Amino acid sequence: MIFNQVFSKHECISLFFAFLDFLTPFFSPAAIPEFCAVIGEDRAGKLASSANEDEEQAALRSCFSALMTCDPDKIQTELQKLVDRLTAAGGLVDDEFIQ
Looking at residue 20, what is its pLDDT? Predict the structure, then answer.
């Protein structure tokens, strides 16, 4: 499936955050290369190393701002890479979630 033919920019952003919500209990955001490619490694690192709630909130705001100003084609490309990588890793992605 090619995301840019199926989903709008807003749907891709929602899916990207849904995947991030699913993955963060298991992985640091900085360990998700597709996330880092969209928001930048420095922001992902700050989010991962947040020492308290205030730092985490500031890091989340920065990540959200980067996501909102990112080229929509880049978001679609990185989301497709994430889905492909997780699917290849043993079916970590539920087909119903993608469709």
Answer: 64
Closest by Cα among 87, 73, 71 to 19: 87
Strand, helix or coil at 7?
Answer: coil
Token pair, residue 97, equals 């979630």
Distance CA 68, CA 75 (A): 10
pLDDT digits (tens, 9 = 90+) for 48-77: 888 888 888 888 889 888 988 999 899 999
SS (H, E, C) the chain: CCHHHCCCHHHHHHHHHHHHHHHCCCCCHHHCHHHHHHHCHHHHHHHHCCCCHHHHHHHHHHHHHHHHHCCHHHHHHHHHHHHHHHHHCCCCCCHHHHC
Tell which residue, 42, 38, 43, has the closest CA to residue 81: 38
* 43 closest CA partner among 54, 53, 35: 35
In whole angstroms, what is the distance from residue 58 CA to residue 98 CA? Answer: 30
